[in-house]
């Protein structure tokens, strides 16, 4: 019966295509009249969203009026003719704040006057006034051409700023600009250590608070573990934990579905993962979280059916190993099950006898991807298969690339072991609190980076002791105080 219910539920769901835009399992409410250039202001818009003030009509009216003024001023900046800077007042939902007599319980009022005519400076002023993170603005500034503070940001510049987050590989523009400046690790660390230490000290207390909140969530409501997207800062995670704990207290009946589950706070989507994790977007209002958790029984049969579909696909493809994409934060259950079912039906209609002529493929691995991707062989030796790929083309490609895949898989297994060893050695030698890398840094690049860092331990250890190091494609400092350096740094 579980399998039948899973198939019925699966067919009733639309295909979820993950992108940098928010994807939700339920209806989504967007801030009204949000300008096209508002991505950097997204945390602010969700903090002052009028839907949060349904029981407070006076405060809701104040926020709506101030949002209209703010959006009008931002549009005037884009048009190159900014009008008189407005004085704005907003009510923001926040936990454990000291309330004044004019603010409703659970909210605080914030007043500020916009003094700048530069878009990113305006964004920074707004976020800082509301105690919201501003770490993403530093990356945005790298993508802006040099201009005076009085020059407004034109409309086409916003697409460049947006592309930095949304288009794969666009971080290379930032990397090239830094290479042209010939930034050296020694001088960069020397110039930025005061900022790194300040942010690391500020975030340390927040991390301790987060651990306390996670322990409470697991102890009081039976949650197995709490995870989060690596792109979420500890300040956002703290807000998510506080909001989720408040939701559990307000709806104790809902907590029955949380027992033994893993909660994952995501950067841009909500749903249930193929592994059964409850994925909650930090951009969602609490009503969306409640709706998702209340519908968990419908997802459980689907999650249980996914291994059955993987085995069925493997049998049709001569026992190849079916793997999930490790380069994405989470694989959503509904999308992944639809991909599996679509490829299985395609193979069954076209016939699979040609796969058996290839021989046993149990040593090889495939990863399913969306229909807009391309059929290719990854650097790790895995076949990346779009669900829209015709079976005849897939069989021909696999037969042609078997030897290459075998070599790359052996190389991957060897590099994986060496990378783990070098990362552990580097972390111990430099006495780092944490060491990790971005997905776009390959294993050979990470091995080379760690080896060179370890060789320079006499000079780097006193500077990086206790730091949280992240290997990327460029230099930057996150709001949490994480030190980001390119893998091919030069001393």
Can you walk through the features of this model?
With 491 residues, the chain is an alpha/beta fold. The chain has helices spanning 2-12, 42-47, 57-78, 119-129, 135-143, 155-166, 171-180, 185-221, 234-250, 286-294, 296-316, 333-350, 353-358, 391-430, 443-455, 457-464, and strands at 87-93, 107-113, 225-228, 262-266, 271-272, 278-281, 321-323, 365-369, 376-377, 383-386, 434-437, 468-472, 476-477, 483-486. It has a four-stranded mixed sheet. Strands 7-8-10-9 form a four-stranded mixed sheet. It has a four-stranded mixed sheet with strand order 11-12-14-13. A hairpin with a 5-residue loop joins β13 (476-477) and β14 (483-486). α8 packs parallel to α9 and α14 packs parallel to α15. The longest helix is centred in the C-terminal third of the chain and has 40 residues, at 391-430. Residues 14-37, 95-104 and 145-173 have low confidence and may be disordered.
How many extended strands?
A: 14
Helix content: 40-55%
Q: H/E order of the elements?
A: HHHEEHHHHHEHEEEHHEHHEEEHEHHEEE
Q: Average pLDDT value?
A: 77
* C-alpha Rg (nearest Å): 25 Å
Strand content: 5-15%
**Widest sheet: strand order?**
3-4-6-5
**What would you call the shape?**
globular
Q: Low-confidence stretches at least 5 residues in length (pLDDT < 50)?
A: 14-37, 95-104, 145-173
* Terminal CA distance: 63 Å
Q: Count helical runs.
A: 16
Class derived from helix and strand content? alpha/beta
């Amino acid at each position: 019966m579980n399998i039948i219910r899973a198939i019925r539920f699966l067919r009733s769901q639309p295909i979820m295509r993950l992108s940098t835009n928010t994807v939700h399992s339920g209806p989504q409410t967007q801030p009204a009249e949000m300008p096209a250039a508002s991505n950097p202001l997204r945390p602010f818009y969700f903090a002052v969203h009028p839907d949060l003030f349904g029981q407070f009509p006076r405060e809701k009216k104040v926020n709506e009026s101030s949002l209209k003024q703010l959006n009008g001023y931002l549009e005037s900046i884009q048009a190159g003719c900014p009008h008189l800077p407005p004085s704005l007042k907003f009510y923001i939902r926040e936990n454990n704040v000291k309330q004044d007599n004019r603010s409703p319980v659970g909210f605080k009022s914030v007043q500020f006057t916009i003094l700048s005519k530069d878009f990113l400076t305006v964004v920074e002023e707004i976020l800082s006034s509301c105690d919201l993170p501003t770490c993403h603005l530093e990356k945005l500034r790298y993508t802006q051409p040099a201009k005076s503070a009085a020059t407004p940001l034109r409309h086409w510049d916003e697409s460049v700023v947006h592309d930095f987050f949304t288009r794969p590989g666009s971080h290379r523009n930032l990397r090239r600009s830094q290479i042209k400046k010939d930034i050296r690790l020694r001088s960069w660390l020397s110039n930025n250590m005061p900022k790194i230490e300040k942010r690391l000290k500020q975030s340390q207390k927040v991390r301790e608070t987060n651990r306390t909140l996670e322990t409470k969530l697991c102890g009081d409501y039976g949650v197995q573990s709490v995870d989060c997207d690596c792109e979420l800062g500890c300040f956002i995670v703290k807000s998510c934990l506080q909001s989720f704990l408040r939701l559990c207290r307000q709806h104790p009946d809902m907590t029955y579905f949380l027992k033994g589950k893993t909660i994952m706070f995501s950067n841009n989507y909500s749903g249930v993962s193929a592994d059964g994790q409850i994925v909650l977007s930090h951009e969602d209002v609490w009503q969306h979280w409640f709706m998702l958790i209340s519908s968990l029984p419908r997802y459980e049969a689907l999650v249980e059916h996914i291994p059955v579909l993987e085995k069925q696909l493997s049998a049709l493809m001569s026992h190849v190993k079916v793997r999930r994409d490790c380069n994405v934060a989470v694989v959503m259950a509904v999308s992944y099950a639809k991909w599996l079912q679509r490829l299985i039906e395609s193979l069954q209609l076209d016939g699979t006898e040609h796969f058996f002529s290839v021989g046993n493929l149990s040593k090889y691995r495939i990863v399913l991807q969306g229909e807009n991707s391309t059929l290719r062989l990854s650097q790790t030796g895995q076949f990346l298969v779009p669900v829209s790929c015709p079976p005849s083309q897939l069989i021909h490609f696999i037969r042609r690339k078997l030897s290459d895949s075998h070599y790359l898989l052996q190389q991957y297994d060897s590099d994986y072991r060496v990378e783990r060893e070098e990362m552990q050695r580097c972390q111990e030698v430099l006495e780092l609190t944490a060491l990790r890398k971005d997905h776009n840094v390959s294993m050979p690049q990470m091995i080379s980076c760690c080896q060179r860092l370890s060789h320079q331990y006499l000079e780097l250890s006193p500077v990086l002791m206790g730091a949280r190091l992240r290997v990327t494609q460029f230099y930057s400092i996150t709001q949490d105080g994480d030190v980001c350096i390119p893998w091919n740094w030069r001393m």
